[in-house]
Design goal:
The protein is of the alpha/beta class. The protein is about 20% helix and about 35% strand. The protein has two domains: about 120 residues, 2,3-Dihydroxybiphenyl 1,2-Dioxygenase, domain 1 (Roll); about 160 residues, 2,3-Dihydroxybiphenyl 1,2-Dioxygenase, domain 1. The strands form two sheets. It has a nine-stranded mixed sheet, with helices on both faces. An eight-stranded mixed sheet has the order 2-3-4-1-5-8-7-6, with helices on one face. The protein is globular and about 50 Å long. This is Oxidoreductase. It holds the Pfam family Glyoxalase.
Length: about 300
């Protein structure tokens, strides 16, 4: 029963008080397409992705991370994972069943050790998507999600033990010890990462661009639009991916990236990278230095939704 049943990252769902401002940012500025919208809820797709949506926005009195959704290969795998988690004492939010979100499918939800809601699903209808063209500075797909945890060692252990994520690399600093763990569920370096933070919250959500040119064009487009840049542009050591971090209207950090490393899982050995070496944070040396300001922006506000399942 120790095989990996999660195949990939599907979407990240956010609740926000100023729904209209957030919706305008993610569509007009960030470059997602409003695939399905209703009063107070919107499902936003990345043009190059077969996923029905990459971001869901929901109007709510308080800002929170509603859920992180992952895919599985079949209903049998969904059932097996739900049974495995239930037997291990993990609290299920819903039992496996038909999903009522765009694309349907079969899935269930549970709370992780920090109280985040996580969904796993299979058989979601494939969205009619397209190849993003040369020069188009819009996201191809959701690349990865990074979460803050006050006890990150326990959170990493949860995802390794129960969901069989594998550790790709770890970042450490001389005075803080280990501060970020990169976890994979397929050949990509990470689809989830856990950062040491003062409270449970979203650290950032990252979106893959077509290539370096499109990534730089997107970075410049946001700068010209006056969107607050947190960090970048640069290229990380762990994952070897490019990065430009910005703040959405509600203070969530969102990233444009490209060229996230693909690993040979049979031969890969995790590195422990020292963040006091400048090239670890940014191989290029083009980004503003990692500072307390940069770190604090990514701490985000304490998530008020822990161990409270979203209504939809």
């Amino acid at each position: 029963m120790d095989e990996r049943l999660i195949t990939h990252l599907r979407h990240v769902d956010l609740a926000v008080p100023d729904f209209d401002k957030q919706l305008d940012f993610y569509t007009s500025t960030w470059g997602l397409s409003p695939e399905t919208t209703d009063d107070g809820i919107a499902f936003l797709a990345a043009e190059g992705s077969p996923e029905q949506y990459s971001v869901r926005l929901r109007r709510a009195p308080e800002k929170r991370l509603d859920l992180i959704a992952f895919g599985a290969a079949s209903p049998a795998d969904v059932d097996a994972l739900a049974a495995r988690l239930g037997t291990a004492g993990v609290r299920l939010v819903t039992e496996p069943g038909s999903l009522r979100t765009p694309g349907g499918g079969y899935g269930f939800r549970f709370f992780d050790n920090d109280g985040r809601t996580v969904e796993v699903s299979s058989d979601v209808a494939v969205r009619a998507h397209r190849r993003v063209e040369e020069g188009e500075s819009i996201p191809v797909k959701l690349s990865h999600v990074v979460i803050n945890a006050p006890n990150p060692e326990a959170t990493v252990a949860f995802y390794e033990k129960h969901l069989h994520f594998a550790l790709s690399d770890t970042l450490a600093s001389p005075h803080m010890g280990s501060v970020m763990w990169f976890l994979r569920t397929n050949r990509y370096h990470h689809s989830l990462a856990v950062a040491r933070g003062p409270h449970v919250s979203l650290h950032h959500a990252s979106f893959e661009m077509r290539g370096i040119d499109e990534y730089m064009r997107g970075t410049g487009r946001l700068l010209r639009a006056g969107v607050e840049k947190v960090w970048g542009p640069g290229r990380h050591m762990a994952g070897n991916n490019t990065f430009s971090y910005f703040l959405d209207p509600h203070g969530n950090t969102v990233e444009y990236t490209t060229e996230l490393e693909e690993l040979d899982e049979d031969t890969w050995h995790p590195h422990l990278y020292d963040l006091s070496e400048p090239e670890v944070a940014d191989q290029w040396g083009t980004a503003n230095p990692m500072s307390e300001f940069v770190a604090k922006q990514s701490f985000n506000d304490p998530d008020r939704g822990v161990f409270v399942a979203p209504p939809v």
